[in-house]
Amino acid sequence: MSTNQTVESAKNTVNTAGEHVADAAHATRDYVADAANSTTNTVQQKKEETSSVLADTTQTAKEHVANAADSVSKAAKPEEEKTPGFLEKTGTAVVNTAQGAVEAVKNTIGMNDKK
């Protein structure tokens, strides 16, 4: 094999290797992009699921607080005449406390959407 043939063969080998490296880089870039998209989609899905659970929990808490306030109201009927507005204030305070707890949980996990 002559020197020119050896040089030409080496150039071909370098070109082929360069093409393989470029193909591998392209495949790696595509893989990383797909993985990033998949991760982003999973995070968004989990955020939506968490928001749904928080909304359900908030609604349940509000219902329990309302039921508790109603029970207190019914139990304290005889005292109502002596303390007008007390039960309303107590019920409002209980509801506000429950709502504050829900907001604190939302803030803690970064899900508080102020619209």
Q: What features would you describe in this structure?
A:
With 115 residues, this protein is an all-alpha fold. Helices cover 87% and strands 0% of the residues. It has 3 helices and no strands. The longest helix has 73 residues, at 3-75. The termini are far apart.
Defining key terms:
mainly alpha; single chain; 0% strand
Strand content: under 5%
**Percent range for helical residues?**
over 70%
- Largest sheet properties: none
Whole-angstrom Rg = 33 Å
What is the approximate shape? rod-shaped
Unreliable parts:
none
Q: Structural class of the secondary structure composition? A: mainly alpha
Q: Give the total of beta strands.
A: 0
Number of DSSP helical runs = 3
SSE string, helices as H and strands as E? HHH
Mean pLDDT: 80
N-end to C-end Cα span = 77 Å
Concise summary:
87% of the residues lie in helices and 0% in strands. With 115 residues, the protein is mainly alpha-helical.
List the helices and strands and how they pair.
Blueprint: H1 3-75, H2 77-80, H3 86-108
Helix pairs in contact: 1-3
